[in-house]
Specification:
Homotetramer. K(+) binds at residues 68, 124, 158. Residues 10-212 form the YjeF N-terminal domain. The strands form three sheets. Strands 12-11-10-13-14-15-16-17-18 form a nine-stranded mixed beta sheet, with helices on both faces. It is of the alpha/beta class. The chain has two domains: 2-215, YjeF N-terminal domain (Rossmann fold); 221-481, UDP-N-acetylmuramoyl-L-alanine:D-glutamate ligase, CATH 3.40.1190. The chain contains 17 helices and 18 strands. Bound molecules: ligand NAX and potassium ion (K).
């Protein structure tokens, strides 16, 4: 697992570490890591660039008044020593880190008000973790005027809200963000994550001093491998888990087919379908055992209810039957509309519930649209309804009822396609049926679904939900074989 820590938590860790080191050491570590990444980027081939390498490259620094500007100026001084033409523009009056500015000047760089209109690399050293959302006017003007080959954000893209990932005002949009010591929530959450570009972490030795509980967690391949239940020699189709799918209708049979496709791609050994689209499911997936009603389906270890399911009296009755079962459930789509109208159906449930709203469904459940702090928004709904909440978006967030927040690192905009959520929900129910906790099932499903979207999109501009379902087994295979985790059963 990776984590992202708030500005205050990073400052506490930095204070502990700085007390053990000579003054200025951390800034030099940060600047050295940043200069190395910049040099690497300048060596890369880039369409708009006339030459490759550091020597002779044009590097412009937007320098704010604090230590973030200091990092940028020290890194630029290292590039100037290697022959780069460096122009640094103070963007908050004349206030810049004085020692770093002097180092840059000694190395041959220049402090200017008007840099060249084109540069190979633009370093955003306007604001770091001390920044409030928004940019000073001069930074906005320079960003509009400069044609930069590559934009590198120093620690965070300036202007974003570091702790929440909100972007309420203007902010830098980076190609690469070089983060120091740890990730921050803005790198992985909300609109700010769209401003981050590719993320590079520079180790400055902060790790041992960081709080063991990050503000936001980010799953990695190794987590998935450790959580995944591989069948053993004594397992059969029942012990691997039976998943029940209550989805689709005569009007929307596709939702039933897609949700069962997702369920079949998961680790459960048996998929049952209950609903009025049974004929369609049977034709598409002969391995699914179909009934017309939830009550006829027999025992399952987890249910999915909701996609294409309808919101009438009959649907409400079926939803009540699902919720009466002692198994964990995933509630999606029409089931979310129903619990928005009849919240009492959720009370008295002991087994885990995972809700998978998009923003409009969230609003129906919570009474207002999700706040720009999407981690907090998901956590507030999870707490209120005592459920796990997976809040869909370009960066999907999962929150547990006890306030744990996870940001999903996989996924792409093409996944916003009809039926893609049905596949996700079916797959998640299969993970629950295999014995994963609600929060892990939600985190793992989002992760693998995003990865499957990447596989399906390779070489294509558009993808369908069916493509994503077909790519899920490969996504699972690649993820589980990427690491060798001791806890995993073979
Ligand atoms: N503390 C440390 O040990 C280290 C800090 N480092 C760097 O230091 C950064 C934090 O530096 P600072 O604490 O000096 O803070 P910043 O450089 O983020 O901000 C400096 C000042 O900008 C002003 N400001 C904030 N928001 C503004 C806005 N929206 N518009 C206009 N002005 C605004 C404030 O007066 C603030 O004090 C980190 O992000 C990182 O880049 C690194 O050098 C690593 C070590
Ligand atoms: K910055």
């Amino acid at each position: 697992m990776d984590g992202a820590w708030s500005a205050a938590a990073v400052r506490r860790a930095e204070a502990q570490l700085m007390a053990q080191l000579p003054p200025g050491t951390l800034m030099q570590r940060a600047a050295a890591g940043l200069a190395t990444e910049c040099a690497r980027l300048l060596r890369e081939r880039s369409p708009g660039r006339r030459r490759r390498g550091v020597y002779g490259a044009t590097v412009t620094v937007l320098a704010g008044p604090g230590d973030n500007g200091g990092d940028a100026l020290f890194a630029a001084a290292r590039l100037a020593k290697r022959g780069a033409r460096v122009f640094a523009v103070p963007v908050m009056g004349e206030r810049v880190h004085p020692v770093a500015a002097a180092a840059l000047t000694r190395a041959g760089g220049r402090l200017v008000a008007n840099p060249p209109r084109r540069c190979d690399l633009l370093l955003d050293g306007v604001l770091g973790i001390g920044g409030r959302p928004g940019l000073p006017g001069r930074a906005i003007d320079q960003l509009a005027a400069i044609d930069a080959g590559t934009v590198v954000a120093v620690d965070v893209p300036s202007g974003v809200d570091v702790d929440t990932g909100a972007v309420p005002a203007s902010a830098v949009t980076a190609d690469v963000t070089v983060a120091f010591g740890s990730y921050k929530p803005c790198h992985v959450l909300g609109r700010a994550a769209l401003h981050t570009g590719r993320l590079v972490l520079v180790d400055i030795g902060l790790g041992p001093h960081l709080d063991p509980h990050p503000a936001v967690r980010v799953a990695r391949d190794g987590d998935l491998a450790a959580w995944w239940h591989e069948p053993g020699p004594d397992d059969d189709k029942y012990t691997r888990g039976v998943v029940g799918v209550a989805a689709g209708s005569e009007q929307y049979p596709g939702a039933a087919v897609l949700a069962t496709s997702g369920a079949l791609a998961g680790p459960a050994g048996y998929v049952r379908y209950a609903g009025t689209a049974a004929e369609y499911v049977r034709r598409r997936h002969p391995e699914v055992v179909c009934t017309q009603e939830v009550k006829e389906a027999g025992r399952v270890q987890a249910w999915l209810a909701g996609p294409g399911f309808g919101t009438d009296e009959a649907s409400l009755t079926e939803l009540r039957h699902v919720l009466e079962s002692p198994a964990p459930v995933v509630l999606d789509a029409d089931a979310l509309t129903l619990i928005g109208e009849y919240p009492s159906v959720l009370t008295q449930r002991e087994a885990p519930v995972v809700l998978t709203p998009h923003d409009r469904e969230y609003e129906r459940l919570y009474g207002s649209a999700p706040a720009e702090d999407r981690g907090a928004a998901a956590a507030a709904l999870a707490k209120r309804l005592n459920c796990t909440v997976l809040l869909k978006g370009h960066h999907t967030v999962v929150a547990s009822s006890d306030g744990e927040v996870w940001a999903n690192p996989t996924g792409r905009p093409q996944l916003a396609t009809a039926g893609s959520g049905d596949v996700l929900a079916g797959f998640m129910a299969s993970l629950l049926a295999s014995g994963m906790s609600g929060t892990r099932a939600a985190v793992a499903a989002a992760y693998l679904h995003g990865r499957a979207g990447g596989i399906a999109a390779t070489g294509h501009r558009t993808i369908t939900a069916t493509d994503v379902a077909k790519a899920l087994p490969q996504a699972v295979g690649e993820t589980l074989s990427a690491t060798d985790t001791p806890g995993r059963r073979r």
